[in-house]
Amino acid sequence: MRGLGELEAAVMDVLWSSPESHRVRDVLEELAPQRKLAYTTVMTVLDNLHRKGWVQREMDGRAYRYRPSATREEVTARALRDLLDASNDVETVLLHFARSVSERESAVLRDALGEAPDGADGR
Fold first, then answer.
1. CATH code at 16?
2. What pLDDT, in 10s, does the model give residues 11-42?
3. Rounded CA separation 72/38 (Å)
4. 63 in Cβ contact with 47 (< 8 Å)
5. Cβ proximity of 7 and 43 under 8 Å
6. Of 69, 90, 65, nearest to 80 (Cα)?
């Protein structure tokens, strides 16, 4: 994900993978098969993600429980919006993007815009 380091992205993947909030230990256990990390490392990453606004936390006994501040899809849409906002020629960027989408993606976009294929909606 844009704006995240490799370990931060891995931690966010864990948080996005479940609707439940996670303790530091939960995240550590999920990452253990791929990475050998210290508890304090994961705690620091989650604290940094909280400070950056990527996660929310609430106290549960003596430990925090963490959950994403936004879904992966919302974050991805914001990143696309940021890229468009940074462009000097939004129309050209959108046209290049539109030419790159699959038929399924094109249908999703048309449905979202309330249009039928090939202008069949009468507009």
1. 1.10.10.10
2. 999 999 999 999 999 999 999 999 999 999 99
3. 26
4. no
5. no
6. 90
Q: What is the pTM of this model?
A: 0.78
3-class state of residue 53 by DSSP: coil
Indicate whether 54 and 16 sit together in one domain.
Answer: yes
Q: State the residue range of the domain holding 77.
A: 72-119
User: How would residue 123 be classed by pLDDT, with cut points 50, 70 and 90?
Assistant: very low
What tokens appear for 68 in the block? 């994403």
Same structural domain for residues 53 and 17?
yes
Domain count across the chain: 2
If asked whether residues 80 and 108 sit together in one domain, one would say yes
Cα distances from 6 to residues 2, 10, 12, 58, 111, in angstroms, run: 10, 6, 10, 25, 35
